[in-house]
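Researcher: Let's do a round of design. I'm pasting the structure tokens now; please hold your answer until I've finished.
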């Protein structure tokens, strides 16, 4: 880890210690956030009005120069049960990285493979994000692949409205 990343991580941990953890009780893993946004010095939770929709949590990653991007946790469900997807978005809402943060089911687990998750990198709300169109499903995990793509599509449509509030 670079000196800059280490300093940013230590700053975030100091804020966590001072706040008693309340501000970050549901936050993404700070080390993971720093990995995707290495210059980040703060993660700010943003309000999420107007549920129900798939967005569980929304965070703004920033530093002293301004906004770096967003972290969005999305609820999704497939045949084998619910799972959570984490999107890392640029400030213009293009996908930088995609992670599965929870998947309890036995079937469809192959959507956690990096080769599948990378298929979403660079996508934005202008893209179809549809299995068989611009995203290839994982063999043996077609339902989970489709559920994930649909949830990401819906989230990319909703996030701009949430950011207006």
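Researcher: That's everything. Go ahead.
Model: Designed sequence:
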């Amino acid at each position: 880890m670079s000196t800059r990343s280490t300093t940013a991580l230590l700053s975030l941990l100091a804020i966590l210690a001072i706040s008693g953890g309340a501000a970050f009780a549901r936050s993404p893993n700070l080390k993971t956030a720093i990995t995707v946004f290495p210059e980040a010095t703060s993660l700010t939770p943003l309000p999420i009005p107007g549920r129900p929709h798939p967005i569980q949590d929304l965070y703004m990653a920033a530093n002293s120069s301004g906004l770096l991007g967003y972290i969005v946790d999305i609820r999704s469900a497939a045949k084998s049960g619910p799972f959570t997807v984490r999107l890392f978005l640029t400030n213009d809402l293009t996908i930088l990285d995609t992670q599965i943060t929870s998947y309890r089911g036995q079937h469809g687990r192959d959507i956690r493979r990096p080769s599948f998750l990378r298929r979403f990198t660079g996508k934005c709300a202008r893209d179809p994000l549809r299995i068989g169109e611009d995203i290839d499903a994982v063999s043996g995990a077609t339902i989970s692949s489709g559920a994930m793509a649909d949830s990401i599509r819906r989230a990319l449509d909703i996030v701009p409205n949430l950011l207006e509030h």
